[in-house]
Amino acid sequence: MAKNGLDKWFKQKWVDIGSKRKDGSFAKCGRSKQKKDAKRKYPKCVPLAKATRMSASQRASAVRRKRAAGNTGPKPTNVKTFAKRKRISTWRIFYGWKCWKTYRSWW
Hints:
By secondary structure, the chain is α+β, with helices and mostly antiparallel strands. Helices cover 42% and strands 12% of the residues.
């Protein structure tokens, strides 16, 4: 039995982190064609284990980016679950932001 790949993927419980229920659990991943489900917003699905590890702000950020990307075709749009961190330049870390502003004004 393979530990990775499709076997593992199918055994995971996938949930929609964009729709949290009142009891604190997440809704099942995907949408059906029923009227009540058709009104649900575009789902961002992740495995339950990953969803519980994420903070509330990480979940909100992932859902926001997924819905902003939209769905332009028949296939779903993939968006990274964790956003890339912005790199801070070493100059800003070493000298501080105020020194950088002063230094920049000399030019």
